[in-house]
């Protein structure tokens, strides 16, 4: 009798556990299935790209203003956690810059950014981008390091034609025609605006940032302290689509529209269920 | 394809490790907490090792030790810097009084850069940008609406203060506007975070299983 009761309890516990984990696992499987369904990027029903293109046009114009053979500094300080959101946008920008014949140099002021920059530089080397971007390495000191870079951005180990050109132009941040800041939480484009902007007002600053930084950075775009800003997923997808020329390149995938739609609907369902439970339980007024 | 891993053996190995780590983290969803904890330790250990390596290879040796060893006479400022760095490194064993100067210099420097930059780079330019350009400015209506919303939301924070009927209604309106703003922002963040999950699934299907192109 006791054994039977224990067996029933065990079975009930297993069923309860299965019920608890089933929705999460089912969502993962549904999202995976949705990713496997081919959907055209320009499908009118499932478009991730934003119809509002002013920011995309702003970044394209900023890159278009850089002279051929110009120098652009890519300040890669994204977070490991949120970089996938802006990876496609960043790679589209690198493709855009390369298409304009612009020479690139990479620098990082955060350890996480340095890890991502090293991986991106390795990827670019494998894809045979010419001229190979200069690696200016990691600069410590956060904002103090930023200010120090205004005078000298070249590490002693830097060599090659791009490093020589930077040196010939003074060796500091003023040597560049544009800085593209790939932002993260530790050191965002705000630090560039605050530390570099007042000291080098002629240096255009463009930024690519994950969504959570949009409210922080948008005022700088309105005030003109940032030349261009892409800071939401939809803007990034719009830009990546605008740059796209060939499918299957190494820009990294933009998230599947159907999977995103299903995920958003699932999230809304969870929110709705929580709100309904709160309302029926007599939630507090705001 | 994320494009990070190369097609050689090292790249394949990296993809497998990343895929298994991803599945290991997701195993938390089905209650496999030990695997999740193990991967947390792995992440913490890797991050610590990476930071130590970065600090030694890209900061301490090339910017402190090497210049001092090569030509100490022309890098005199690095000598007190080395002393302060040593004090901070030994903070766990030294009395607080001994490490206070190093901490003070560190915090003072950070605060000076942050505050100076905030005033010169944010507060003053943003105030200038917020000033209306003229009565005919097309953005003026938007600016007035923004001002009204800001005032209402600020009133919404007047908790506990005695409020009149009109002020109380304005404060309630401000709180609802705040909730609406946060709700709108939550939608953006939801899409943002969801894209990270979709990216990981895409990595498993594309980079690892090669069933997604």
The gyration radius over C-alpha positions of chain A equals 24 Å
Rg from alpha-carbon coordinates of chain B:
27 Å
> How much helix is in the residues of chain A?
40-55%
Instruction: Say how many strands of chain A there are.
Output: 6
Features:
heterodimer, A: 286 residues, Rossmann fold, 6 strands, B: 213 residues, mainly alpha, 6 helices, extended
Task: Please provide a written account of the structure.
The complex is a heterodimer of chains A (286) and B (213). Chain A has 286 residues and is α/β, with parallel strands linked by helices. Helices cover 52% and strands 10% of the residues of chain A. Chain A has a six-stranded parallel β-sheet, with helices on both faces. In chain A, strand 2, helix 4 (111-127) and strand 3 (134-138) form a beta-alpha-beta unit. Chain B is built from six helices and no strands. In chain B, helix 3 (78-89) crosses helix 4 (96-130). Chain B is extended, with a radius of gyration of 27 Å. Chains A and B meet through helix 1, helix 3, helix 4, helix 5 and helix 7 of A and helix 2, helix 4 and helix 6 of B.
Kindly summarize this structure in a few lines:
The complex is a heterodimer of chains A (286) and B (213). With 286 residues, chain A is α/β, with parallel strands linked by helices.
Describe how the helices and strands are arranged.
The complex is a heterodimer of chains A (286) and B (213).
Chain A: H1 2-36, H2 54-64, E1 71-76, H3 83-99, E2 103-108, H4 111-127, E3 134-138, H5 142-151, H6 161-168, E4 178-182, H7 189-196, E5 205-208, H8 214-222, E6 228-230, H9 233-243, H10 257-280
Parallel strand pairs in A: 1-2, 1-4, 2-3, 4-5, 5-6
Chain B: H1 9-26, H2 33-70, H3 78-89, H4 96-130, H5 140-156, H6 165-208
């Amino acid at each position: 009798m006791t054994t039977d009761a224990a067996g029933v309890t065990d079975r009930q516990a297993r069923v309860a556990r299965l019920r608890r984990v089933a929705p999460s696992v089912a969502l993962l499987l549904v999202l995976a299935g949705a990713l496997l369904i081919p959907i055209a990027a320009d499908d009118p029903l499932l478009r991730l790209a934003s119809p509002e293109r002013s920011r995309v046009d702003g970044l394209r114009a900023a890159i278009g203003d850089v002279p051929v053979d110009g120098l652009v500094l890519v300040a890669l300080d994204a977070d490991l956690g949120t970089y996938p959101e802006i990876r496609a946008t960043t790679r589209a920008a690198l493709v855009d810059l390369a298409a304009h014949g612009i020479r690139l140099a990479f620098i990082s002021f955060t350890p996480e950014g340095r890890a991502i920059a090293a991986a991106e530089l390795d990827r670019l080397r494998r894809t045979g981008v010419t001229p190979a971007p200069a690696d200016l390495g990691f600069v410590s000191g956060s904002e103090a390091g930023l200010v120090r870079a205004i005078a000298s951005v070249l590490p002693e180990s830097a060599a090659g034609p791009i490093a020589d050109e930077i040196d010939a132009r003074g060796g500091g941040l003023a040597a560049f025609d544009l800085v593209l800041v790939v932002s993260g939480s530790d050191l965002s484009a705000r630090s560039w605006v605050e530390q570099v902007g007042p000291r080098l007002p002629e240096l255009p600053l463009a930024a690519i940032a994950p969504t959570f930084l949009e409210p922080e950075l948008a005022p700088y775009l309105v005030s003109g302290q940032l030349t261009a800003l892409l800071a939401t997923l939809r803007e990034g997808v719009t830009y990546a689509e605008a740059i796209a020329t060939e499918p299957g390149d190494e820009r990294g995938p933009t998230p599947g529209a159907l999977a995103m739609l299903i995920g958003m609907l699932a999230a809304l369902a969870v929110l709705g269920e929580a709100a309904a439970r709160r309302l029926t339980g007599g939630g507090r007024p705001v | 394809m994320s494009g990070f891993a190369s097609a050689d053996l090292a790249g394949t190995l990296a993809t497998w490790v990343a895929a298994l780590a991803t599945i290991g983290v997701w195993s938390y969803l089905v209650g496999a907490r030990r695997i999740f904890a193990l991967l947390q330790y792995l992440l913490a250990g890797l991050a610590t090792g990476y930071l130590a390596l970065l600090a030694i290879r890209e900061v301490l040796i090339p910017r402190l030790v090497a210049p001092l060893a090569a030509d100490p006479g022309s890098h005199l400022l690095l000598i007190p810097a080395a002393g302060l760095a040593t004090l901070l490194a030994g903070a766990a064993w030294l009395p607080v009084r001994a490490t206070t100067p190093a901490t003070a210099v560190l915090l003072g420097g950070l605060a000076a850069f942050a505050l100076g930059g905030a005033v010169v780079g944010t507060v003053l330019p943003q105030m200038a940008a917020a000033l209306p350009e003229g009565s005919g400015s097309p953005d003026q209506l938007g600016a007035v609406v923004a001002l009204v919303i800001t005032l209402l939301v600020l009133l919404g924070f007047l908790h506990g203060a005695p409020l009149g009927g009109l002020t109380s209604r304005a404060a309630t309106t401000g709180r609802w506007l705040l909730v609406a703003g946060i709700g709108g922002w939550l939608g953006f963040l939801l899409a943002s975070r969801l894209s990270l999950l979709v990216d990981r699934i895409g990595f498993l299907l594309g980079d690892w299983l090669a069933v997604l192109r």
